[in-house]
Amino acid sequence: MRILLTSQPIYSHLVPALVPLARTAQALGHCVAVATAGSMADELARHGVPHLPLPNVAGQDRLRNDPRLAEEFGLPQRLLTERRTVDPVAAEQIARAYAGPIALRFAHDLLDVARSWKPDVIVHEPAEYGGYLVAELLGIPHVTLDISPYAMRELPLVSATLDAQREALGLAPTGDPLHPHRYLRAGLVPEGWYPDELRLPTARHYRAPAGEDAPLDPVIAALPADRPVILASLGSLVLTLPGMAELLPPLVAALGSLPCHTVLTLGGRPELADLVGTPPDNVHLTPFVAQRTLLPAVDLFLTHAGFNAVHEAVGAGVPMVALPVFADQPANADRIAELGLGERLDVAELAVSDLVETCTRVLDDPGYRWRARAMQRRHLGSPGFDQLVADLTELVGR
Predict the structure, then answer these.
(1) Mind listing the domains of the chain with CATH numbers?
(2) Confidence of residue 194 (pLDDT cuts 50, 70, 90)
(3) What is the DSSP string of 160-213?
(4) Which residue among 154, 256, 307, 350 is least packed, with the fewest CB closer than 10 Å?
């Protein structure tokens, strides 16, 4: 079977789930490639996954830093409001851009590649619609690898925009917002994570492989057993947004006052340590941590609630305190609270005392840990990616 994977050229969209799927399929003897922008070439090479570069698809650095390109695609110049919350108008513009001109440009490049490479099935992530469009043109199955469950809420908003791209490519409009999921939506968390309105008859749920087993830094590995351990991370993208790095000093102040050891990551940016100064003895600053390795060994995860972070916490059975900022993070944080897996705080009104009280409450109440462990057990009961590959084979054979 020939499996073509497509993704926006964003690390968090590509590497945590699509790359493990590619590696699993390769190990099972299938022919696999990833089609995305040339900016991801080095990353894909590092993982040993063949890359089909799309020459006219812009990498994220160019999208962020080229105002003319952003204007061409209808992307907003500003994402956050003055209160560090996402501008709802900007969020709608982003959704329409990815289903509109960005999808069309991706589809034009991908069609040339796919006609030569001849895939049997295309697997795309929710923000990448070009793979869906090209699979429809070629008359082959397409599958959504669901790295962002709440992106489905945008489909009614962008359905007409997506239909316009279908018409531009010579396809008939569908009028069906759920059409991109009509073959299979492959979830990465148990069905219980999804609220009722986001559950689909075409949905199946899988357990992604653990990925690279990176060792912990010796200093982190040697943290003593005299108190709980917190992992705190706002991810790599949040800290690049205007004003967001200013959250670090109050975070460090709050975490330093807790009777815990904390590992606080700086999103790969060691220079941000200068904003904090000398941290308290119980707060360990690090540019990067092997998060998937560390999570099963901590007592609480303070997170921005991006889906990759949530997915890894569910797999580790760790309670969370969520500080969401944009994209699907607020919805993920709400779901964490609804399911009793942790609590959510408003990043726009973050106070040191609130953070201390919330972390203390989640650490002290065993119910959060029990519910997180129950969700973990459901996750561990899901089939692995070898079953997803088998399901792709079944789709192709229909």
Answers:
(1) 2-207+382-397 (3.40.50.2000), 218-380 (3.40.50.2000)
(2) very high
(3) HHHHHHHHHTTPPP---TTGGGSSEEEESS-GGGS-GGG--TTEEE-B------
(4) 350
